[in-house]
């Protein structure tokens, strides 16, 4: 269980008005919660994009076999219980009398179908289910997951694996997942059919999405809202103004420069809480020639000296102080310290531009070189500003960075699988398993085997077979002390290779109406089923 400081509950009071753009309604209408995010909700297919806001939005309508509570502890979901009759077999007892939103019953067939669909080409969630797992139907409400090897963390990522209806998917030709790069939306990208406490009655990608309470939901919901209306408000000033005027009840993020103004307002407060997401930079370390660079015929990032130079040229303390206004913690690893007991044994290498220049000269680039930097401008706190700071810092050592900052829909379609179209990029990551194996397998795992989900989010294809070998052992190890030592060894290899440049863990920065009570969970997922609002 996470430390107490990662389990804050927000309890606040005040008022909000309706906004025509957000779907204003008469005073006698349903209790409506209105929320806005800087980015959009592009696809309703729960296997399209492994991104925190999107996963949380899908979590209002879809459900997992095993989910996480307010403290991020594993708890039953659509599986009311599970057991391990043998080390390589998990047996799930499924809830009875659960129906999808279209009225069809939830059964073992839906679990088996979803297990295959989530691991199919085009899914961004292939690592959420063990690659070697075979799902076997025992009866309509019992499913076995059979593994080739013991796996003590097999269930850790189930929280982001949502169960879909086999019959519905077949009926609407949606048996295959919708890739993030898809130019034409599938039926599943525009419609939903989950078992969750809310349905979606309207979805306009990039504009608004309307959630309605599902009267046929099987469980109890800690929420008194009847509907929720989501809108994309990309402009910071407009988003803050909507919160302060009461036009919306929740926004993410509140720009750092506006937080004191929001907190001192009559209508809203800023919720600042520690977050488990790590913001980092990655580099293309596999292409023979670096795309978008003036260096032809070779890839500078294949040289460890260049990678170290980039790391040492970036003043993360300055980024935290000036760009993040103190609302971030410098990172030495790709994982937040609360998720790895030995994280304190790692120290972030010192900012040293002189050494960076010397390393570049030694590597054959005394005058630096050009490289593009892919960055979102509507996904993380001050994401574009961070990339602008990195651009400026690298310029001091002779590297000309051409910043490509885009909305997350275009950004993710460009950099993620299958395109992997990036030379240098910024990304944020919270391991969905809350465990280091996720990072060592998905972020730091070699991308050599196209049939394997290993390295799914290893965009630059950093590769060290020693890390892969350790990750495989870590996945099977049941002795926690021995496991932690192997994790430490793997991180030592990754950081010794200067494989990535971890920047910081940002602070959660929600703006919330004083009329609303909700749960700011440490993974930054805002779950609608924990939202209550005074009518």
Describe the 3D structure.
By secondary structure, the protein is α+β, with helices and mostly antiparallel strands. The protein is built from 14 helices and 20 strands. It has helices at residues 52-58, 108-118, 166-171, 187-190, 236-245, 259-263, 304-313, 316-323, 353-362, 383-395, 408-415, 436-443, 465-476, 480-496; strands spanning 10-11, 32-37, 66-68, 74-76, 79-86, 89-94, 134-139, 142-146, 198-204, 208-213, 227-232, 250-252, 268-283, 328-330, 370-376, 400-406, 424-429, 500-513, 516-518, 532-533. The strands form 5 sheets. Strands 2, 9, 10, 11, 12, 13, 14, 17 and 18 form a 9-stranded mixed β-sheet that branches. Strands 5-6-8-7 form a 4-stranded antiparallel β-sheet, with helices on one face. A 3-stranded antiparallel β-sheet has the order 1-19-20, with no helix packed on it. α7 (304-313) packs antiparallel against α9 and α13 (465-476) runs antiparallel to α14 (480-496). It is globular and about 70 Å long. Mean pLDDT is 93; it is low at 1-28.
Summarize the structure.
The chain is of the alpha+beta class.
Mean pLDDT: 93
Shape: globular
Per DSSP, the total helix count is: 14
Secondary-structure-based class equals alpha+beta
Biggest sheet: strands, sense, closure? Answer: 9 strands, mixed
Low-confidence stretches: 1-28
What is the distance, rounded to the nearest whole angstrom, between the alpha carbons of the first and last residues? 34 Å
What is the total tally of β strands? Answer: 20
Oligomer: single chain
Helix share, percent: 10-25%
Strand content: 15-25%
Radius of gyration: 23 Å
GO molecular function: peptide transmembrane transporter activity
InterPro entries: Peptide/Ni-bd, SBP_5, SBP_5_dom
Protein name: Periplasmic dipeptide transport protein
Domain Solute-binding protein family: 73-449
